[in-house]
Write a structure and sequence with these properties.
Length: about 200
DNA sequence: CCATTGATCGCCT
DNA sequence: GGCGATCAATGGG
């Protein structure tokens, strides 16, 4: 299977976030292959963005991987869940949070890891658990190594831009349209209504 | 050492 | 739509 070139992560984080929609994330963890097509992402713009973990510019034990160059992942724990970002740029602490994927490989394994058969990967804490990602093992991992790869995947028909979720206390940053989803795909946070034809893929 | 704080989830009404 | 569980990191005493 062909791996995706990672150059698109090197410069503009908002463009990289949109480009990631439809790409397939595949993990090889505990001898199991699991994966899915990205349906929902959010961009976090470091020093200019009050909602970002790196807004202060201070390096802490929690956020230090955000200061690595693109091609690494940043995994953090909150409320007992792991969440995964792709780090972007070479000189700024910016990244893209992966919030939803559409299951494509190893679905039975993901059902077992999640302990249920519905809503496997429609949230940032859910998809990391389904894919086997944990902060203590995988924070700072390099993309396209032995453990986690990105492949070309599918192409979204329509991309919708919305405010981000769960940052209601972040003043003006609450209004930024930094959340991008595949329009009509049901594998996104708080999905309501009916899925569109082909789940919104071309 | 203890209290508070989240880029959340899942079950309840 | 509300709320409790849950946990690592952080900051104050």
């Amino acid at each position: 299977m062909k791996l995706l070139e990672l150059d698109f992560l090197s410069d503009d984080t908002l463009s990289a976030a949109k480009y990631l929609l439809g790409k397939e994330i595949v993990t090889y963890i505990d001898g199991e292959e699991t994966g899915g097509y990205i349906t929902e992402v959010e961009a976090y713009l470091g020093l200019e963005d009050k909602a970002a973990h790196t807004f202060s510019g201070k390096v802490t034990k929690k956020n230090d991987m955000m200061f690595e160059p693109y091609g690494h992942i940043y995994v953090y724990t909150m409320h007992g869940h792991s969440c995964m970002n792709f780090v972007t740029t070479v000189d700024r602490p910016e990244g893209v949070l992966i919030r939803g994927i559409e299951p494509s490989r190893g679905i039975e394994v993901m059902e077992k890891r999640r302990g249920r058969t519905d809503h496997l990967t429609d949230g940032p804490g859910k998809l990391t658990k389904a894919l086997g990602i944990q902060r203590n093992l995988h924070n700072g991992l390099k993309i396209n190594g032995d453990t986690l790869c990105i492949m070309p995947g599918k192409t979204p028909d329509t991309i919708a831009e919305t405010p981000r979720i769960g940052i209601d206390n972040k003043e003006e940053a609450v209004d930024y349209l930094y959340r991008f989803i595949v329009s009509g795909n049901p594998h996104v946070s708080k999905f309501k209504g009916k899925p569109v034809a082909d789940n919104g893929w071309k």
